[in-house]
TrEMBL record:
UniProt protein name: Beta-lactamase/transpeptidase-like protein
Keywords for this protein: Signal
Span of the signal peptide: 1-25
Keyword Signal listed: yes
The Beta-lactamase-related domain, residue ranges: 48-420
Similarity remark: Belongs to the peptidase S12 family.
InterPro entries in the cross-refs: AmpC-like, Beta-lactam-related, Beta-lactam/transpept-like, Peptidase_S12_Pab87-rel_C
Domain (Peptidase S12 Pab87-related C-terminal): residue spans on this chain: 469-569
Length: 586
């Protein structure tokens, strides 16, 4: 493997894939000396600069893997005022973490070292018509069995894994969770930093998150619909840790995958990443996260957030140098970490992904295990994006072509837009796609974000099409609705009375923040009529507007004339996740 690093002199030749690697700081004043085949050339750098300006992204790092060559370069600002992005700059990598969970399970299954105890009969076979998804018969359940992809989650976790549907509890498998076909919607707002009473509750664990699922409604039949769910990857993390005797997933990934690949600058907690930066200042730097503030026409800083409870759903912090090694492992058939059979099982398509958008590829997208997959101009590829509160990641790989690209940036959503446009330019150049036949990814992202704005603007009409203007007044004084509300899955929601920031609706209104949630949300209430409200949700530290959601809400008033609860119809991907009833406790 030959490693070409932008901003460094010369070529690191013959670097063994399993050799430990310590990231070094790039000297931005040093001229890049690369071969003529370098895809990250000067004209590409100009293009990336245009993308960063257009999408208001401070910086991005990109790595290309082409056969035995790896090129890596940084563009823009990692941390204002002047720290540049280099190939060694750390970023949150979000949901690209999921592929590592699938990889860990592949290694466990491949080893044959994990045997589960005999299970009691689980009742009749699945009533669903997909014969390929049937589980073993009840007679088979009496015998001890080796861990495999069809192992029921409940066989690993016991009563830690309980859903509101008994059949789903008993029958959902590791593969069902890996491929997002459990019937459980996102419920991202339910992921909390602590489960328990008040600030004194201990930090949340993947076991806490798993046990919280019994309080969350499913919104589809198991195995009937692709429904992306971060919670289920926390469940899978709990499975891996349980099978490994309680060892932390971060330690397992480092021992089993990162160390053999030389991924020495990859971390599974914010604390570990910051500790590495303190130990090697200049050699290790975690990029600051930002959002574009339209009010000031400038960048605003978002704080670092802990991700330990997110675990396998999105807990990695890394750089493009290390991720290039991960991609190259896949391009090399899994060597030196995975067997060919193990990596093939991870990449096998499992669940079609419904889409109402334009058909972009040769085949409809499917989800494998931690990867989306399809075909472009006859070339099979696997991909996954990642998004955090102020970071974005994109990973693409074309194993048949021995080609892959990784990009990491430091804004939410808009960095993904810039990254995809840059990545697909590299892909099209590699595959020699004529410019007139290429997909306009910038236009696609403009449409996507514009459509999101239209949906938010039309949310009131969508949720309350028959409302009358003006609406009926709420039954009680506004102060009566303030207080703390509780749901065992979503935990506490404390509502207060504030001055409205809406220019067209001056006066007082209701507002809430959930700082203990992993996704630290704001709740802006807009009164509709009587006890009906619209809630607009955003991130506490991300005010670009790109991350806004909406949900209809209704306060409940008991026979005593006092507020007893609040029901919120959380939504994601244009569909209802479930109506969550909070009980007023204060």
């Amino acid at each position: 493997m030959r490693l070409h690093i932008g901003g460094r002199s010369g070529l690191v030749a013959g670097l063994a894939l399993c050799q430990p690697h310590v990231a070094a700081a790039s000297d931005p004043t040093q001229k890049t000396i690369l071969g003529s085949s370098n895809p990250l050339d000067e004209s590409f750098g100009v293009y990336v600069k245009e993308l960063l300006d257009k999408w208001h992204v401070p910086g991005v790092a990109i790595a290309v893997v082409d056969g035995d060559d790896i090129w890596a370069e940084g563009y823009g600002i990692a941390t204002f005022p002047s720290t540049p992005v280099t190939p060694s700059t750390l970023f949150y990598t979000g949901s690209t973490t999921k592929a590592f969970v699938a990889g860990a399970l592949s290694l466990m299954i491949d080893s044959g070292n994990y045997t589960l105890p005999a299970l009691p009969p689980t009742g009749p076979p699945s009533p669903y018509r997909h014969a390929s998804l049937q589980l073993p018969s009840p007679e088979h359940d009496y015998a001890p069995r080796k861990l495999d992809w069809t192992t029921p989650i409940s066989a690993v976790l016991g009563d830690d894994f309980v859903l509101q549907d008994a059949w789903a509890t008993a029958h959902l498998t590791l593969q069902d969770a890996l491929s997002h076909r459990t019937g459980m919607p996102r419920h991202d707002g339910a992921i909390s930093r602590r489960y328990g009473d008040g600030d004194g509750a201990p930090a949340a664990t993947v076991r806490d998150i798993t046990r919280s699922l019994r309080h969350l409604p499913l919104s589809a039949e198991p195995r009937e619909k692709f429904m992306y769910c971060n919670l289920m990857y926390a469940v899978l993390s709990h499975c891996v840790e349980t099978l490994a005797g309680g060892r932390w997933l971060g330690d397992l990934l480092r021992e089993w995958i990162w160390a053999p690949l030389g991924m020495r600058s990859t971390f599974f907690s914010l604390e570990d990443a910051l500790a590495a930066e303190r130990e090697a200042p200049g050699a290790v730097h975690l990029a600051g996260g930002y959002y574009w503030d339209n009010a000031t026409a400038g960048f605003a800083r978002a704080p670092f957030i802990g991700v330990r409870e997110v675990s396998g759903a999105g807990g990695i912090l890394s750089n493009v140098e290390d991720y290039a090694r991960w991609v190259k492992c896949h391009l090399d058939g899994g060597r030196p970490v995975f067997s060919e059979e193990g990596i093939a099982a991870v990449r096998k398509p499992q669940m079609p992904v419904d889409s109402d958008g334009p058909v972009l590829f040769d085949t409809p997208q499917s989800y494998a295990s931690g990867w989306f997959t399809s075909s472009y101009r006859g070339h099979r590829f696997w991909t996954h994006s990642g998004g955090m509160h102020a970071y974005g990641a994109e990973v693409y790989m074309f194993p048949d072509d021995k080609f892959g690209v990784v990009a990491l940036g430091n804004t939410a959503m808009t960095s993904n837009a810039a990254e995809e446009a840059a990545i697909w330019r590299l892909i099209d150049e590699k595959l020699k796609i004529p410019e007139t036949e290429r997909i306009d990814w910038t236009k696609r992202w403009e449409t996507l974000i514009g459509k999101k704005d239209i949906v938010i603007d039309g949310a009131l009409d969508e949720m309350f099409p028959d409302r009358k203007e003006p609406g009926l007044p709420h039954d009680l004084p506004l102060e009566s609705y303030a207080g703390t509300y509780f749901h065992p899955g979503y935990m506490n929601l404390t509502i207060q009375v504030v001055e409205s920031e809406a220019n067209d609706k001056p006066g007082k209104t209701l507002y809430a923040e959930r700082p203990d949630a992993t996704w630290m949300m704001t709740y802006d209430f807009q009164h509709v009529s009587s006890e009906y409200w619209m809630v607009y949700l955003g991130l506490i530290y991300e005010r670009s507007g790109n991350m806004r959601l909406y949900a209809p809400a209704q306060f409940k008033i008991g026979p005593s004339g006092k507020v007893t609860g609040l029901e919120i119809g959380y939504r994601s991907d244009g569909a209802l996740e479930g109506n969550i009833l909070f009980t007023k406790i204060d």
